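Field guide to reading this record: the first block holds the primary sequence, the second block holds the structure written as discrete tokens, and the final block holds curator observations. Each block starts with its own label. This record concerns CBS domain-containing protein, catalogued under organism Metabacillus lacus.

BLOCK 1 — SEQUENCE
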Amino acid sequence: MQIRYHYVKKEEVKYCPADYTVKQAYELLKETGYRCVPVLTVKEKAFAGLIYKVDLLEHYVENKGRDEDSIEGLISDKDAFIFEEDSFIKTFISIRRLPFLAVLNEKKEFSGIITHANIMDVLEDSFGLKTGGHLLTVATKEHKGAIKDLVTAVKGVNIEGLLTLDNGDKYIRRIIVNLSRDTSEENLNRIIKKLEEKDFRVTYVDDAG
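BLOCK 2 — STRUCTURE
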């Protein structure tokens, strides 16, 4: 899955030109309420890094900085970017320590940002939470072919999403299955019984919609 359709476009992003002074950058962050914004070069096309409010305040307080100082030395996380064609997995791993990632196009021009909220939207969509359904938490002893056995047990019912937990555990794995919201209670009970006959244990049933 690529992220090109799941980020905030440049037109909707508040950013800081690289030739801003410390005062201009600080006023921008105060006005927007953000703790950090991307910095773009003077032509406002290339990503230069991130500017944090805390670094601006530190410049004023601890370094006795002046309003007219350049922000150049305060720009950080210059590698906090991905490309439109990058995979979702790469994005998911890269964004962990950052408030957001800049998104660049094939010309290495700034196209927008992807946030943690965007990541959550993708996860919710891939797991089928936006369409609702019945969430079954299923526990099983770790064994080869566990997913195949589970899918076989719910054959005939649309699976909106599937998530595995405890990966790497030698003994127990939990699998969360999102079954279509139009699954009747009778059919749901039949599926639970069939799962338990195959040595799966349904530990929790929830409604996602």
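BLOCK 3 — OBSERVATIONS
The CA atoms of residues 80 and 97 lie 10 Å apart.
The chain has six helices and eleven strands.
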